[in-house]
Give the backbone structure.
Amino acid sequence: MLKGFASGADDYLAKPFEPRELSLRIASILRRARPPSAPPAESVRFGPFVFHLTRRELSRGEETIRLTDREREMLRVLTASVGETVPRQALAGNGESVSERTVDVQINRLRRKIEQDPANPLVVQTVRGVGYRLVASP
């Protein structure tokens, strides 16, 4: 018997049971037990830049920075997990056969647009052997 977590009631599963049914019920109970998440942010600020998630647009003050589709997608992935390391494979796209070196080149191009000194990046940092991390302003 699974004692009521957040639901306040017992959830009973009679034997014999399917392992899939058990895992689905546990997932449901855990989902109900989580506190409601905050609404997603509409924009992420890093340095003098703001990336508007809904419009997928990068701006510095009133100026809109032109981005390629790949740069825009990479920035979307990075802003979805600010401060966390994002593996190169996640930045490569939707299962496309893109090499890690291609991702590195695309990140370098993005850095030229948003970093003061692209050779010593502060916003899009490299996590050696893993991927990249976006450091946002508070």
Q: What stands out?
A: The beta strands are 43-46, 49-52, 57-60, 63-65, 85-87, 124-127, 131-134. The radius of gyration is 21 Å. Confidence is low (pLDDT under 50) at residues 1-8.
